[in-house]
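Q: Could you fold this chain for me?
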Amino acid sequence: MAFAYRTGEAVSIPFGRILGVVGWGSFGRRRARPRSQDHPISTTTHTARRSPLADADLLGSLAELARICANRPDRASFASSLVLQALRPFGARAAGVGMLDAQGYLDMRTMYGFPVGALRDGPRYALGDPFPLPESVRRGTVIEDEVPALVERYPGLAPIGLQGRFMIFLPLQLRGATIGGLAIEMDARPDHERHRVFWGAVCDLVSASLAIDELATARERGRRAGPLTARQREILAHMQRGLTNGQIARTMNFGTSTIGHDIMRIFDVLGVESRRDAVEAAMRAGILAAHEPDPTS
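A: Sure. Below is the predicted structure, expressed as structure tokens.
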């Protein structure tokens, strides 16, 4: 996975940024620190009335989000917790969270409030797809606007039938590296420019929570899978040579289903999702030697 932390390294939730650094009463004011230290906001937002949300509403939202993250919610319920609990003051209607996978695609991990498959043409986005969330992740910018303006700019949103008045799309970052993106549909204006600290804290909490979940999942997967067997190492060597499952099965005199099961176990042990990534991970780990062309071919 495309994360900026190392295996076994602790990931802390930045409560200091939320309360100790910015102070209790600063959510409604623009900070004086340089813009380059924050997520830059898209220049396409429309000028309109300021959000009526009070500091107490924003602090309440952050407190609720911190509680949700501390309780380690399962991935499937995370987006619904954002909509139904943490972002209720904004009249949140829908949310989606995507994570960058090992191939650099934006994989939608959890969604709530959108029609099934509405935010994507499949299980994941290419970062060049003409939708606001992958653009936000690719550029590292916040995109927010009224729904009609977003639909005009991104026609692919039209079939979704968005019911809220506004949407905001935020890149999720961890230790300087972008790891995914967050999309929220709501009735209240998100007003990122005014509530920059609030939305930055939301992104920090979501990013840290997702990173902790991914790290715990990888550890559990490795614990369950155990070490590679001699047969799985041999299968890896055949995969390195480019053999298909059927060719490996005939070479090793096993059924294709047995080979397929072993390959899935290899993926679990190495924490990968493709044959190519498995071979590369095995080479990095010293399980496989660097591939050399067959001189007889």
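A (continued): Residues 196-225 form the longest helix (30 residues).
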